[in-house]
């Protein structure tokens, strides 16, 4: 899979690496309240060292062919993360996860980045199924798989522990044969 994916004229995704730790820490710190509403890991990431450890584990999962974790860059500035996680090459499946700095929401950035990662997953990795999970109350996150033609399969009851409580998750999936890259 590509180390760098050009999404469009201003957007690219780069495989996460050690030199991203400080910038990622600052981005999460500036967006902590915004991100913690739906992401269980935010409160545990309190230092640059926490991000270094996370990046090292992400790189190990990359080496094991179970994760492709990218930073999203707009005009060379980091604005979020997107990755293909829980890659299972035997069953030819994976899951997309994402987050974006609050100031960049609502501009179609995650949708465009998802298209690029879906193309990579279906072509390069030869996956058959990609899924996205979103909390049942997180309407913004649900809009992305719906816009991309994913099918809503059902609900994982109390599937994630966020902010000292369990949230239900919708599961969306897209099969390789269903993927028509939107224009």
UniProtKB/TrEMBL annotation:
Domain N-acetyltransferase per the UniProt entry, residue ranges: 22-176
* Highest taxon of the lineage: Bacteria
PROSITE patterns named among the record's database cross-references: GNAT
Q: Which GO terms describe its cellular component?
A: cytoplasm
One example of the protein's molecular function in GO is: protein N-terminal-serine acetyltransferase activity
- Which segments does the entry list as coiled coil? none
* Pfam families listed in its UniProt record: Acetyltransf_3 (PF13302)
**InterPro entries on file:** Acyl_CoA_acyltransferase, GNAT_dom, Ribosomal_N-acetyltransferase
Identify this protein by name: N-acetyltransferase domain-containing protein
